[in-house]
Amino acid sequence: MMDITADEIGGSPPSTITNKKELQMAQDEIKILRGKLNNSEEKCATLETTNQSLVENLNKAIENNQQMKQNIDDEIQSKLTMITKLNEDLKNLRENYEKIVAEKDAEMLQLKNNAENYVKQGEKLR
User: Fold this and answer.
1) CA distance 109 to 116
2) Whole-model pTM?
3) Is Coiled coil given among the entry's keywords (predicted)?
4) Which region holds residue 45: left if phi is over 0, alpha if psi is between -120 and 50, else beta?
5) Long-range contacts of 111-120 (CB under 8 A, 24+ apart)
6) pLDDT single digits (tens) 4-45
7) What is the largest distance, in Å, between two alpha-carbon atoms of the chain?
8) Residue 8 confidence (pLDDT)
9) How far apart are the C-alpha atoms of 19 and 25, rounded to whole Å?
10) Mapped to the 3 state alphabet, what secondary structure does 24-52 carry?
11) How far is CA 1 from CA 4, 6, 11, 66, in A?
């Protein structure tokens, strides 16, 4: 005995219709999910590009910052060298000033002594 299917007599059994609807719904769901996946992949690619750009900009900023830091360090070192030189010059000038003052004090003392001697000699001559 042979079973005759509903397809052979021109109709579909109710379970087949339900399965076709479920299959169509599943296929529609798959299309929707594929669309969402494509959108997500596009957004991800955009974010990756943006992230790469941000990383490049950050690296440039870091490089510029390091260069500015080096320039500032060089300028500070230059100023410190200049200050050291000026302090040495000031010390030398102070020593020269003190030496000149001591010499002039000695000359003044000598002139005072000479003046006193001239006064004494002048008094003796009178």
Assistant:
1) 10
2) 0.54
3) yes
4) alpha
5) none
6) 444 554 555 556 778 999 999 999 999 999 999 999 999 999
7) 178
8) 52
9) 10
10) HHHHHHHHHHHHHHHHHHHHHHHHHHHHH
11) 10, 16, 21, 91
Res 73 pLDDT > 70: yes
Amino acid (one-letter) located at 62 = I
Tokens of 66: 């390091």
Question: 3-class DSSP state for residue 94?
Answer: helix
Which run of H or of E encompasses 91?
A: helix 14-125
Tokens of 22: 């479920």
Report the alpha-carbon distance of residue 98 to residue 104 in Å, rounded.
Answer: 10
- List the structure tokens of 54: 């941000």
Task: Determine the pLDDT at residue 12.
Answer: 54
Query: Which two tokens mark 49?
Result: 């590009």
CA 8 centroid distance within chain:
80
Tokens 């992230």 appear where?
51
In whole angstroms, give the CA distance from residue 123 to residue 121: 5
